[in-house]
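quick one, two chains, predict together pls
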Amino acid sequence: MNIFRLAGDMTHLFSVLVLLLKIHTIKSCAGISLKTQELYALVFTTRYLDIFTDFISLYNTVMKLIFLGSSFSIVWYIRRHKIVRRSYDKDQDTFRHYFLVIPCLVLAVFINHKFTFKEVMWTFSLYLEAVAILPQLVLLQRTRNIDNLTGQYVFLLGAYRALYILNWIYRHFTEPHYVHWITWIAGVVQTLLYADFFYYYFQSWKNNEKLQLPA
Amino acid sequence: VGESTEHDEL
């Protein structure tokens, strides 16, 4: 474990907690894409298949349970909670899951480190995580008004993967056999997808104005 | 040693 990875995990944890807090306290999911949340639940499910078979550390297991629990409860809140569901904008959140899931699945079958079920599922979860934010970014551009918590949520999500890139660079130099080029490529693609959001986020923060994404 | 596919990251 290195500081970059710990900072990345904490940022990721914080992003999920910010979202849960927003939905739980103000009982609203305005501006939140259910599609992205469902994709994240799928990412964690396919990535943590080994949660009960391979024990890595208490930290690793606890964090996996938190990510699984929080992502499914966010989906539950938006789908089932009698108050929260009313603020879900299903007419705007129309991104088709299968446009992302199917290409990632096909890619994972052909490009992976080892052709076993668990390894293909793990690789699928990496590819899917890289693009899972797209429905959310599309929704933000459609609804144009981005409330602070949603903006912070997306920012933290992008920051966590950027910190992971630093972690991979660090591990590449400190651990001889640490080779996970698939992870590195997926991670860089994921972070690049946030690049334009980061640009507008910093612009709005610098000019101290409301965050607006171009149509 | 080949690429270790043991995934210790989240």
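Chain B has a mean pLDDT of 68.
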